[in-house]
Every structure is written in structure tokens, then in C-alpha cells.
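Quick one: C-alpha cells for this chain, please?
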Amino acid sequence: MRIGRSREDVRELLEIEEADAWFEYLRSTREAPASCYANVERWAWAQLNGRLRSIKARRAELVPVA
């Protein structure tokens, strides 16, 4: 059985996921040793952008059709 969620619930979950993506980026870059920061930062930025694109696409699906 699938439990339905309101659009507001889904929006809130997407906001939480977006915040989590940013915190993961910060955690990854802060923990990186200075010697390999540049490589870790590029990887973390790519991961963040991928997650944000995914969230943006799911938000677009919530927009009511006019």
C-alpha cells in the first residue's frame, strides 16, 4: 500500500534533500587534506551539481499544469 503525500510534504522533503546535499559538499571539502583539496573539491562539486539537478527536475514535476 502506498501512502500519498501532499505537494507541500514533497516540497519540504526536497528542501531537506537540497540542504543535505550542501552539507555533504561542505563535509567532503572540509575533511579533505590540503594536498588533495583541489581534486576532492572538483569531485564534491560535481556530486552536488548532480544532486541539485535531480532535485530541480523533481520540483519541476510538482508545478501544477495550467
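Residues 7-62 form one domain.
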